[in-house]
Structure prediction request, 208 residues.
Amino acid sequence: MPRTLVDITQPISEQLPVWPGDPPVHVARVGDGLPMLSGLSMSCHAGTHVDAPAHFVAGGVGVDALTLDMLIGPAWVVRFGGRGPLTATMLAEAAIPTGTTRLLIRSANSDRVSEAFDPDFVALAPDAAAWVLDHGIRLVGIDGPSIEAYDASGDPVHRALLAAGVIIVENLVLASVAPGGYELICLPLPIAGCDGAPARVVLMTIDD
Prediction:
């Protein structure tokens, strides 16, 4: 059956904006001539990446311990317009199908192009994180640098989701993705014990 693959991963380059205080991306060619060999230095949370429980939960598992069963499978893309935090009420009114376990959020973040880090991005409000948990969602992704607002005190969204074992995927590229159902393939690098890792993330559609 025909299928369409949509890559929703940010390319890694030295122009990639990073969270304030994080190390910048640095790609360096090692030596001259061929074979070409390059070195890479960056935060594990630069670009499109997965947050594992160890990011905020003492004793939480690292990214290498996340199950492929949850990183690969049916997903629902939901779209929101406007600025400000996404609330539980907004999620409840978004017609997300019952039984959704992987939810990807396309917000106004996808409509903005910035060459520098912009702290005014759309993220989840704490009550939206509670809604995610109450509805059995086990993976949630968003098209911004964090699932949580830049100025959030105490990181309640990360802590609630990761403590419950929910996988977080950040910095998705969803500008060309229509709302609806897809097959998600999300493969973070299995860095042993690490709190997160860069990931290649792809959506697959089955064409009629």
Remarks:
- The beta strands are 3-7, 26-29, 38-41, 49-51, 72-79, 102-106, 139-142, 167-170, 180-188, 196-206.
- The chain has a mean pLDDT of 95.
